[in-house]
Each structure stands twice: as C-alpha cells, then as structure tokens.
Design brief:
The complex is a heterodimer of chains A (377) and B (156).
Chain A lengths: L1 H8 L9 E5 L11 E7 L2 E8 L7 H5 L4 H8 L7 H16 L5 H29 L3 H22 L8 E2 L2 E2 L7 H24 L2 H7 L7 H6 L4 H5 L7 H4 L20 H23 L20 E8 L4 E8 L7 E5 L1 H6 L2 H5 L4 H11 L3 H5 L1
Antiparallel strand pairs in A: 1-2, 2-3, 4-5, 6-7, 7-8
Helix pairs in contact in A: 3-4, 4-5, 5-6, 5-12, 5-15, 6-7, 7-12, 12-15
Chain B lengths: L7 H11 L4 E4 L4 E5 L4 H10 L7 E9 L4 E8 L6 E8 L6 E3 L8 H12 L2 E3 L31
Parallel strand pairs in B: 2-5, 6-7
Antiparallel strand pairs in B: 1-2, 3-4, 4-5
C-alpha cells in the first residue's frame, strides 16, 4: 500500500516519452483503408502522418488507354458517394471541348440528380458522424432516409450507388415517369425528418461538448491546404464552385453558399446540415419545371477531342472536384488528372487535430467526411 | 462563366507586364503562363504575395510526361479576385527531371508534389519530405509513357 502511495505522489515526476500508434488501416473510424501514424504523449496527439495508397487503383493511368465515354464509368469508383457529380465533371469537360450545348432538360435533370446525390451523401456522413461518436441511433435514421433517394436512383438510372447516368452529350436515358412524383414525396417527408436530425445530434449536450472549439482550422490554412467543400467553408473559405463557376442549371436557381468563420468541428457539422436545406431548396425550384425535350444530343460513335487542354470543376459533396484532360486529338486522352477534394482535405488533418486528445481526432476526421478511394484514386 | 474582377485579357496584359520572361497567353478557358524552371519559385512567390494577383489557392498540381520534357502544371485561383491562371513549367531533362518545390508557398503542394514524384519520378528540390505516396519503393514510375508492366497492364 505504501509503495502504491509513493508512486501516486511521484507520478508528476514520471518521465513520459512520446510514442507512435498506428490508427488503421483497418480502424473503423477511418472509413476505409487509411493509416494514420499518430505521435502521442499520453492521450494528447502531437503529430499525425497519414499514409495512403492501400487501394490505389491507378485510374489516371487506366484512362489513358480507354475512350471518353468509358472514363465516366471509372470516375464513380473514386468518390462513390458523389458518383453523379464525378460523372458529370467528365461529361461536361468533353462537351465543353467539343462545344456541344446540351438541352435544357439535361441541365435540369443533372442538377436535380446532383443535389439528390449531395443529400444522400450528407445523410450517410451524418449517420456515421454520430456513430463515430458513439450515437448508434443516428446510423439507423440516416440510412433509413437515404434509402428513399437510392430507390429513386435505382428507378431512373438502374443503379443505386455507381449510377453512371451521364454520357457525353446528355443522359443515358430519360427519367422514369414516376421520378418527379417520388422526388416530391421524398422531399415532403424529409423536410419533416431533417429537424429530427437536429434534435437527435446537433442539440445533444455530449455531442456539443465533443465538437465545440475542437479541431480549429484558420481561413489562411484552409486556403493554403486547399481544403474545400463544407470543411473549407466552415473556416470562411468561399469555395463553392456552384457559385463561382456555375455549370448545368445552377445559374438559374436561387441558393445560398453557406459560410461560417468559426472553423471548428461543430461548424463543419452544422454547415452540412444547412447545405441539406439548400439542396432541398434547389430541387424544389427545378422539379416542377423540367423542360420538355431530348435527354441527349446525338454524338459521334467515336468521340475524339480536339488537341488541347480542358479543365472542368464541379462541386461534389466533399468539395471541389476537377478533371484535367490533355488531348492529342485521338479517341483516348493523352493524360487525365483528377483533382479530388478528399486528397487535399485529408492532409490538413494534422493542422486541425494536433494538440487535441486522440478521441477528438476521430471526431475531427468525421467532420472532414473522407472517402478513401477518392484520395487514393 | 467565371466571375472575376479582371477579364482574361486584362489579366494577361497585367501578367505580361509583371513577368517579362514568361510567355502569357489567353487560352479557351483560362489565362496560361509558361515560366522557366529557374524562375519558378520567384514567380510563384510573386503570384501569391502581390496584392493585385494574390493567387493564394493552388487548385491542382499535375505532372505531364511529354516525349522531350516533363511538364508541371499549376492551376491557381485567387480567392480575393476570383481569377484563375494556369502556370506551366518545363523541366529540361525528361529522364531525370528536377524542379523547385512550391510547398513552402502553397502548403497543399507538399502532398501533390509527393504524388507527382511517386507516379512520374519528378524530383522537387528543397522539398521537406519527398517520399513515395501511394506505391512502394522500387515500383517504377507508372504515369511515364515508357513504363512497362507486363503483369498488371494488359496492352490492347
């Protein structure tokens, strides 16, 4: 007993070393195969070194050997939750290069599908964010509501996740006759459900304590590290491509770019919830006004891009996604580069989480909404 | 449609005045600027710190393998003025390309440069941590056009 007392008394004199812990590649909170080499002192995080590449699939190299319509099918394997936006980026890039103007109907449908994808992605993010912090109920609520969107996708595109709905020149097929009705039914229901999300998680005291003033990222760092999407906008970085370089039907709709300057975990969380309301607003403006017309322009059987370089930016659920195509006039590109939002966002993690406890690291990583194939490509 | 303070032509004229050694042109989408490898770091510094330009956001950094040269392409945006410039820089030696790092100017470049090193074998001078990012050591540089991998790549 006396020995134990001595140890307790002298515990402040115990010399502690910093040590390294591998978080992942199989850790549930990394949402895929990502390894974080965490330097710890006690449970305080000093430095984080992310190690990526466990599912590097060489998509950029593969693209050099295949044709443009085929490239679209590879892009939804990157950020599978923003599959439609990734597809659209390549389709828009090819259309701009060939100076093809797609019908208004295509623009409207693409925008509605974009926002539905964003809603589905944010729902999944919300449910796993709660789960990462130990609130399992959110997981079931989120997946329950997301199912309705996936059903709408299935009916119109034939697929639930990797939709492949875009082709250069328009869409693969027209929308299902039920599409408008089902989207409106879903929105009506979801508008009742979304306040429940707030009640369940946003106003929860434990959740607030775990996220308020945790994981601060300054505006300067957000820009310098290229952190885009809701993660960057939480630091006041106005980076919404839908506003700054509008595409498809975004110039026609009214919506706000949600910005906040506080830069902590809770702000990034709140912005995604706010973004869901904006997505609902955008869909409501478009869904009743889809113009009649063709769902695609007739394109040549073999699509060849003129010589030159083409860049297309779109806003996915995670941030700015870019496609950079260098063409030498053949049917396959000379070089394709994908600028993925997750790649840039991930490496700002050290900036946000250093100095916090290791349990907070999980919460901070959740607010970045990482999808690992998007990083590894 | 790009919502910026300066038109592309104004930006081109301004950049030509500021960087007499660089070749500035107006492309279909963005203003393009080709700088010499020895001027790259100074030019990047100026692009970021000059208040009229303030290109503070590096969107994307790409390495491209051409037959005679290795080219690095920087897509830059100003969050203040909302204009975009595409800066390009060639390395003289295609087989052992070397170029200055810009990771001290735009932080995100640190990992983008590691990716380019990993896939194309471009050495970035003064980079603080130039290691492979995705692949293991001794893999070769798969995005190079002369890369051969008989096991994993099926030629069509």
């Amino acid at each position: 007993m006396s020995e134990l007392k001595e140890i307790i008394i002298s515990s402040d004199k115990i010399h502690t070393d910093q040590y390294l812990v591998n978080m992942g590649p199989q850790h549930p909170s990394t949402h895929g195969v990502l390894r974080l080499l965490v330097q710890l002192e006690g449970e305080i995080v000093h430095h984080i070194q992310p190690h990526v590449g466990y599912i590097h699939s060489g998509i950029e190299k593969m693209c050099e050997a295949i044709s443009y319509p085929q490239i679209i099918h590879l892009t939804d394997r990157m950020d599978y939750l923003s599959a439609h936006m990734n597809n659209e980026a390549v389709a828009l890039c090819v259309e701009n290069a060939l100076q093809v103007e797609v019908p208004d109907r295509v623009k409207y449908i693409r925008t509605i599908m974009d926002e539905l994808s964003r809603l589905a992605s944010h729902q999944l993010w919300w449910c796993v964010m709660g789960m990462d912090l130990g609130a399992l109920t959110t997981f079931f609520y989120g997946l329950r509501d997301r199912e309705h969107i996936l059903d709408i996708f299935e009916e119109t595109c034939g697929a639930r996740l990797t939709v492949n709905y875009n082709v250069p020149g328009g869409l693969m097929f027209d929308i299902h006759p039920n599409f408008q009705k089902r989207v409106k039914d879903f929105l009506k229901e979801f508008k009742k459900k979304l306040p429940e999300y707030d009640q369940l998680l946003s106003d929860n005291v434990i959740f607030r304590e775990r996220t308020n003033n945790i994981g601060y990222l300054s505006l300067e760092d957000a820009i310098s590290w290229g952190v885009t999407g809701p993660s960057g906008r939480g630091s006041g970085f106005s980076c919404d491509v839908r506003k700054h370089e509008p595409y498809s039907a975004y110039p026609l709709v009214q919506f706000q770019e949600k910005l906040d300057t506080k830069g902590d975990s809770f702000t990034r969380y709140k912005l995604r919830i706010d973004e869901m309301w904006e997505s609902i607003r955008i869909i409501e403006q478009l869904i009743d006004n889809i113009p009649e017309g063709d769902y695609a322009v007739k394109m040549k059987g073999v699509i060849k891009l003129p010589e030159g370089e083409f860049y297309q930016r779109v806003e996915t659920a995670r941030g700015e996604f870019g496609v950079y195509i260098i063409s030498d006039g053949k049917k396959n590109p000379y070089r394709v580069k994908f600028r993925s939002p997750g790649f840039s966002n991930l490496f700002a993690l050290n900036k946000m989480a250093a100095g916090h406890k290791i349990a907070d690291l999980v919460a901070i990583m959740s607010t970045l909404d990482l999808v690992i194939p998007d990083i590894d490509r | 449609m790009i919502l910026s303070d300066m038109t592309k032509e104004e930006l081109q004229a301004y950049l030509t005045g500021e960087f007499p050694d660089a070749a500035v042109s107006v492309g279909k989408q963005y203003v393009e600027m080709v700088v010499k490898a020895e001027d790259l770091h100074a030019a990047s510094q100026k692009l970021k710190s000059s208040p009229e330009l303030s290109f503070d956001y590096l969107i994307c950094l790409t390495g491209v393998d051409y037959p005679e040269k290795m080219q690095i392409v920087y897509h830059l945006e100003s969050t203040l003025h909302r204009h975009v410039v595409v800066m390009k820089c060639d390395t003289a030696d295609r087989n052992e390309p070397k170029i200055d790092t810009v990771s001290d100017i735009w932080r995100t470049a640190k990992y983008h440069e590691r990716e380019v090193y990993d896939l194309l074998g471009v050495i970035f001078n003064n980079h603080s941590d130039l290691r492979r990012l995705f692949l293991e050591d001794g893999w070769g540089f798969p995005l190079r056009k002369d890369y051969k991998d008989e096991v994993r790549i099926v030629e069509r």
